[in-house]
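Suppose you are handed a protein chain with no further information: no name, no annotation, nothing but its sequence. What can you learn? This example shows the usual starting point.
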Amino acid sequence: MKVLISGASIAGPVLAYWLNHYGFEVTVVERAPRLRKTGGHAVDLFRPGMDITERMGVLPRVEAKATHTTRMKAYREGRRAPVVVDLTKVFQATSDRHVEIMRDDLSEIYYDATAEDVEYVFGDSITTIEDDLVSFEHGAPRRFDVVVGADGLHSNVRRIVFGADVEKAFLGAYLAVLSAPKGQIDGEFITHMGPGRMAGRYGARQLADERVVFLFRSERELDYHHRDVPRQKEILRAAFTGMHPQVDEWLGELDRTQAFYFDSITQLRMDSWSRGRVTLVGDAGFCPGPAVGGSTSLSVLGAYVLAGELAAARGDHELAFANYEREMGDIVRQSRAFALGAAKTLIPSSRFGVWALAQGARLVTALPAGVSRALAKLNTKGVRMHDSMVVKDYDTVLAS
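A reasonable first move is to predict its three-dimensional structure. Written in C-alpha cells, the prediction is:
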C-alpha cells in the first residue's frame, strides 16, 4: 500500500516511521527545498510523546538535545525585583516524563530515523488530489492509496480537500520567535510580563544562538498575510516597544535575525479530519493552539495512532480513518479545552492576573516537589492532561 505524506516537520516523519515499520510504502513531500532549519522555538514532549519516541529508538538523541532550561527569572512591569522560578519543579508537576527541545532539533531526529527507509521529495507541493491520482507543482503525477496532510496549521492538503470553510477559533493572542546572538544565558529563561504581553529570552549550551519569544493579546485578528514578514515585524514592534529597555534591545534583533516566526494562536475545530482517501494529522487537522495546547506531543501521538490504525485495518483506509478519529477524538477535545484556559493564564489581561501568575509560579517553587506533583495529579484535565493520554501498543494489537 502506497501512502503519501505532505509535510516533513514533526507529524510527517513520525507517521512515516511507523508506516514503514508496519510495511507500508511511504513517500513524504515537503515544500521547502531541504529540511527546515529556521531557528524555530522550544517545544515540549510530554509522557505520550516521550513513550512513542522511546519506541522509535531515538529517545537518547532527544534527551541529548534537551535545552535544560531549569530556571526562570520573571520581571513584572513596574517592578525591579524579579520572581525566580524553579522550572524543574514546574515540569515535574505537569508530567512524569518531559523534555524541552528545539523544534528543529526534534524534526531532524525524526527525519534521520526515517531517511534510509522512506522516500523524501523536497522542493515540491501537492496541487490536486483526484481519487488516487495526485498532481504536484513540479513532479509528474503519481498514484497513492492514501494521502495524509501533515503540513501544519496552514495546511495545503486541508485547503485542497476541505476548502476554506473550516472553523478556526482565534484564541486572542499571537506568538513570535526570533534568533539573537549567543550571550551568557544558559539554562535560564529571562522574561518580562505585563498586562496582555510577555517577552522572554533563553539559551542553551548546545545552541549556537539564543531565542527571543513574544506573546501578546489582541481583541481581534490582525490584518496580515502569514508569509508577509515585514508586516509581522511591524506588528511586533508596535506591541512591545517601550515595555522595558531590555525588551527594546531584543526588538533591535528584528533587523538582524537569521530566523523569524510569527503566527496567531488559533485553534482548529473540525468534526472530522478525513475525506475519501485523504486524512489530516497534527496541526493540519487538530491544532489546539500553538504554545498553549501541547500541540507537539499531540502531533506525535496522532501520527502514531494513525499508522497503527492503518496497520490494524490491513490498509482499509475507511475503517482505519474512522478508528483513528474515534481514538483521538476525546484527546483532541480535551486539548482544545485546556488550550483555551492556558491562553488566558499565560498572557493575563490585567495587572492582578500578572501578579497571580507570578505568585503561582513562586508557590510551585516553594513547595516540595512531591507535594506539587501530588496536587497536580488530582487534575487530569488540567496541567496533568497530557500524562493522562493512553498510548496503545499496536505491535501487541497486531500480534494478537
